[in-house]
Amino acid sequence: MRALAIGLLTLALGLPAFDVRAQADSEEEKAARSLYNKGKAKFDAGDWVAAEDLFAKSLTVYANPYARLYRAASLAHLSRCDESRAEMTRFTPDQVAAKARDKARAMIDKVKALCGPAPARPAAAPAAVVAAVPAAVAATGGATASPAPAAAQPAEPSATTDVPPGATVAEGEARVPDAPPALPAAPEKGKGRAPGAKGPILVSPDGSGDYARLEDALARVKPGVAIHLAAGLHRLSKPLDITTPVRLFGDGKSTVIVGDGEGHVLRFLGKGPFELHDLAVEHQGGRWARVIVVEDGDVDFRGIRVSGGVRDATARRGGEGLLMLGGAAGVITGCEFASNALHGVKMAGNAHPILEGNTARSNGKGGIVWFEGSGGTARANTCAANGQYGMAVVDRAAPKLIGNVCADNLRGGLYLESGHIEGLVDNRCPPYQPK
């Protein structure tokens, strides 16, 4: 397996960079290229988990065949072979440049070798037999095969060459398998991570995870960590500021981050990336607040629900579900922004995200709005049943609006303060009618 991994990595290093000549100036291409290049760097470093995630994100923005091939390879390394095979059904070597096709075919062969046919599940061995395996290996001089790991690990340099399926290893070349690692001591529930433990941090409100509170996890883990929020209510003691890269993912809308403080529930500051996947963020109570504030940096929001923004009408503050400021950018897809007192999503400053396939409904004033010098792209979003309009473009803002739908908004679908903007394509949003 290690030899196969090394061979696959060598082939991958020889493939050409992302080909974006067709639409090099579009926001979508820039975002996809950035994600692809980050994924390739992770792949070349043997970080298959991060690589697969970045290639998947790139493909949601632009279906580049190189990203598809790399994602299939990453999935194969992670032993997620069904997904790898499914990705390979969408790829053929003729989709890439002619000079890269031979290497692409060789990479496909390596992916197939890593996964092979779907293995039959063996019956579980008794605990006594499992415990006896290391001793058996030592007694036979290393000839006993060790069980395959549940997921392939990053390859380590090795002089061993690939052995084709069915070939016999020459006498004297049998390798002693690595001894099983000692299991780390289990921590007290909800009190932190066991030494040496790997994988996402688990935060569970009932105390059964690594931490019981999100605030404690963020205060103690390293930047860039993935944190899994189990289903349930994750109540914050105060508005939460996040300054380092982090990925928070839940179990769907049954995972809810709840805050009742003044100002915001979550606020992201810094360069990012800041990732929220498959969870809900909600403000409760009567204090004024935006639900999520992004002051700068790159975000990746997928499958989240944002609700409960409260407006202070006297001071003219608060009420947004998501407020993006500064140079905030990134991708927001498949999300819902509902029941906020002012706007579902507001861009200001020079924020320029890509919003695709989102829903903004039942907000007090606007569904998705752009102010000041903001921009970016909004594609295939639905803005419905909002208190004034579905979408609005104000001040110097200049987003591209493509294929969006506005329905049942009180005063109309699209409000353009200047009367027109460039980049309106196939939207079904009737014009805003002032009253």
Write the layout of secondary structure elements.
Elements: H1 2-13, H2 27-44, H3 48-61, H4 65-77, H5 81-88, H6 101-115, H7 127-139, E1 201-203, H8 214-220, E2 226-229, E3 232-235, E4 240-242, E5 246-249, E6 255-259, E7 263-268, E8 274-277, E9 280-283, E10 289-294, E11 298-302, E12 305-307, E13 311-312, E14 317-318, E15 322-324, E16 329-333, E17 336-338, E18 343-347, E19 354-356, E20 359-361, E21 366-370, E22 377-379, E23 382-384, E24 389-393, E25 400-402, E26 405-407, E27 414-416, E28 424-425
Parallel strand pairs: 1-2, 2-5, 3-6, 4-7, 5-8, 6-9, 7-10, 8-11, 9-12, 10-15, 11-16, 12-17, 15-18, 16-19, 17-20, 18-21, 19-22, 20-23, 21-24, 22-25, 23-26, 24-27, 25-28
Antiparallel strand pairs: 13-14
Helix pairs in contact: 1-6, 2-3, 3-4, 4-5, 4-6, 5-6
Quick overview:
This protein has 435 residues and is α/β, with parallel strands linked by helices. The chain folds into two domains: 2-115, Serine Threonine Protein Phosphatase 5, Tetratricopeptide repeat, CATH 1.25.40; 201-425, Pectate Lyase C-like (3 Solenoid), CATH 2.160.20. It has eight helices and 28 strands.
Question: What does this molecule look like?
Answer:
By secondary structure, this protein is α/β, with parallel strands linked by helices. It folds into 2 domains: 2-115, Serine Threonine Protein Phosphatase 5, Tetratricopeptide repeat; 201-425, 3 Solenoid (Pectate Lyase C-like), CATH 2.160.20.10. The protein is 23% helix and 24% strand. It has 8 helices and 28 strands. It has helices at residues 2-13, 27-44, 48-61, 65-77, 81-88, 101-115, 127-139, 214-220, and strands spanning 201-203, 226-229, 232-235, 240-242, 246-249, 255-259, 263-268, 274-277, 280-283, 289-294, 298-302, 305-307, 311-312, 317-318, 322-324, 329-333, 336-338, 343-347, 354-356, 359-361, 366-370, 377-379, 382-384, 389-393, 400-402, 405-407, 414-416, 424-425. The strands form 4 sheets. Strands 1-2-5-8-11-16-19-22-25-28 form a 10-stranded parallel β-sheet, with helices on one face. The protein has an 8-stranded parallel β-sheet with strand order 3-6-9-12-17-20-23-26, with no helix packed on it. Strand 13 and strand 14 (317-318) form a beta hairpin. Helix 5 packs antiparallel against helix 6. The longest helix has 18 residues, at 27-44. The protein is globular, with a radius of gyration of 25 Å.
